[in-house]
Fold:
Amino acid sequence: MALSLGVHVGQQNMSMSDMRALWRKLDTAGVDWISAWDHFYEAPPKNGTEPHFEALATLGALAAETTHARIGCLVFYVGYRNPALLAKAATTLDHITNGRFELGIGAGWHIWEATAYGYAFPDIGTRLDMLDEAAQLIRRLLTEERTTFNGKHFQTVDASCLPAPVQANLPIWIGGVGEKRTLKIVADHADGWNAAYLSVDEFGRLNQVLDQWCEEEQRDPATVKRAANIMFNLGLDEADLARQRERLKADWGNASERVAGGALLCTPDRAVERVLDYVQAGADEVNIALRAPWHPEALDAWLNDIMPAVRAEVGSAKIQRKVPQ
Structure:
């Protein structure tokens, strides 16, 4: 099987020059995927007290700085930008990267930044309705010569999206972990599903729920890729690992225990096993999530030692992704 190993870079607490240097480093090291996230404020929320760059403009720079890795955003909140605009932006980024861009969308969660910037943030049912419409509209705009769409939340009238993307099928990812609505929308409309900071057991459980939704919608589950984002809290030794645990508690508060369950919270000698657990639970892609600051030595250990070791294990056929039943 082919396993994608990526890096999800939160564009906060870094200068743009440092972030661009990081992207080049990752691309040169051979990571398969580099992504940003879609926030105006920092995550986890701290009331807009930390420097943070906007996602779409950031992706333009990321596209121009890389030549190997697929790139994207995990994920754009569909309430911040009209989906037709996202389709146009996705096409543009696909041309800048010569076919390396993939579009992620989701129902959002950061109510604090939305309120601060004057965006409506409706109830979750409404936001999921918006996500469902957005996925349909974007797909049509990326594949049809002209699109007229009359949704409750989004509309287009005889709209074209030219030039067409470089990719015949520009992949659409949907992020989220809601098993009743989100995973159904994935099964109905997406090429891939992304889940952030889930434990291995919970990722595996929801992976099976997605299989069931695919079967109910008469879709082959194997046609939907599965990606796990895991927090990068690699400790260089036991003392450093203890500091990483304390940092998680300080950053995430009451949510720290849940987030720690979906983190690379271990020393390097355990990291390969930790990643392979997600592969066995059904992940086609595993992305480490970087939030500055981090230990440069820990990132080097990931790029130079852990990532090649994971690939070797998967390439040896000792590890297999769970095959949908």
Observations:
- The chain has one domain: 4-315.
